[in-house]
Amino acid sequence: MSATVALSNISHQFDGIAALQDVSLTVKPGEIVVLLGASGAGKSTLLSLLDGRLDEWQGQAEVLGSKLSEGTAPTRQKRTEVGFIFQEFALVDRLSVYQNVMNGRLGHMRVWQSLWGRFDERDHMAVSAALRDTGLADLARRRTDQISGGQRQRVAIARCLAQEPKLILADEPVSNLDPAHAEKILALITGQARKRGIGVIFSSHQPELSQRFADRIVGLRQGEILFDSPAGQITQDHIKQLYYGDTPGGGLRVVS
Amino acid sequence: MSRIVIWVSLAVAILWSLTTADIGLGKLPGAGVRLADFLGRMLPPDLSIWPEVLNGLAETLRIAILGTLFSVILSSGLAVLASENLMPPAIWRPVRAVLAVIRAIPLILVAMLMVGAVGLGPLPGILAVTFHATGMLAKFYAEAIDNVASAPVAALESAGANTVQRLRWAIWPQMAPVVLRDTVFRFELNLRESLILGIVGAGGIGLYIQTYVRSFQYEKAATVTLAIIVLVLLSELINGALRKRFS
Ligand SMILES: Nc1ncnc2c1ncn2[C@@H]1O[C@H](COP(=O)(O)OP(=O)(O)O)[C@@H](O)[C@H]1O
Ligand SMILES: [Mg+2]
Hints:
The complex is a heterodimer of chains A (256) and B (247).
Chain A: E1 5-14, E2 17-27, E3 32-36, H1 43-50, E4 58-63, E5 66-67, H2 76-81, E6 82-85, H3 97-102, H4 111-115, H5 121-133, H6 149-162, E7 167-170, H7 179-196, E8 199-204, H8 207-213, E9 216-221, E10 224-230, H9 236-244
Parallel strand pairs in A: 3-8, 3-9, 6-7, 7-8
Antiparallel strand pairs in A: 1-2, 1-4, 4-5, 9-10
Helix pairs in contact in A: 5-6, 6-7
Chain B: H1 2-20, H2 31-42, H3 50-81, H4 89-104, H5 107-118, H6 122-146, H7 150-158, H8 163-194, H9 206-214, H10 218-245
The structure holds adenosine-5'-diphosphate and magnesium ion.
């Protein structure tokens, strides 16, 4: 089986400032990988590249067997295959929980039919399953702006699951949560992914949590991969280097 | 500093109005008696003219409905041109400037021009309302477009939705309540403003007010007034109920 993600020598700049530098990364099918790093390390940039939302870069990128090309958004089908859980959830407030989750199915549907809100049995079943798996079945009819923040996050996850992607990307899914809550959400995302046999790549700045839920941890600092190891082999040194590590010029660089 | 400027300007404006305008304050003492006499002659309202009044009101209502409808159609197109998100400044700036000018022209003036152009009757009224209302509605619609949050739209694109699907399930749901609320609000304004169109021959109930007052038939003018009050209160009630639904 070919790799889920294959990046070689990816670089990207925002207005001349490097956000990614010579990043090479391979992710195997079903693998759960964390992009670990401080704020500004390039995690979101890397995830949006994988989601096909970056316009230009240097290097070669392949996701789920197809090459990403600069300047052209992936086809509808390719976009459907990659699910993304957004940091701020990106839900349509005035729609019901059910319809927000149904929005994850749009890529699978005939366009004209979806415009009338006439969804196939197959779509309704996927939505119901996603709502059940995220514990939202009782809230299906509620308007999305009338539920709690934690519930909204689960709607975002349900929308991604209903999409039936072959790979899940998540940008800082737990950075705003208290520890107990964060664990629940990560358990939900990784548990559902394992159940479906698909991979997850999520970003985080919390080493302990990442170690608990990931197969592999990729440490990013200033757009570069600092280390790439099985989660069990991450040491305090790795973490120190990542957050307080020596800058290329030597000496201690304190990240505030 | 600037506060002093504001207070001084305010005082100057008031003094200027009191001293320079020929207000004719001397006429005030007798006004109460004359007003009472006038109101007295309105009573009892002559209800026998209700078929005419109803006809006039129906015509005003039609002018307001059609004027709103055509204005909604025009505004939908113009709003896209006036949107800061969809258009470059070279387009939306002049379009918005034109809309501002349109808003600045009073309806009654537009109506007089339209009567000159197409003759008497409800048609000039409809055209005038359409023109006048579009100045406001197109601006409101453009703002509704520009206030759409982009994150959910991007999320749907990421999930595989195409442009039309994103319009239907991410953009329109955000815009719809605002657009409907603005439209209902504009309809209420159109209805109120159309009441006087008849005075310049542009159709509707206004003609009867004009006719009855000029010919000293105050009992009939009273009936027209009552009918108008009922209509306006009704429309306010209905709009209030509708607006609550669009939150
Ligand atoms: N839209 C943007 N425009 C300009 N610079 C950006 C933009 N997005 C990110 N950057 C810069 O790119 C670098 C990486 O950002 P990001 O990928 O968001 O990091 P992270 O997600 O790890 O916090 C940062 O220096 C950030 O300031
Ligand atoms: Mg980020």
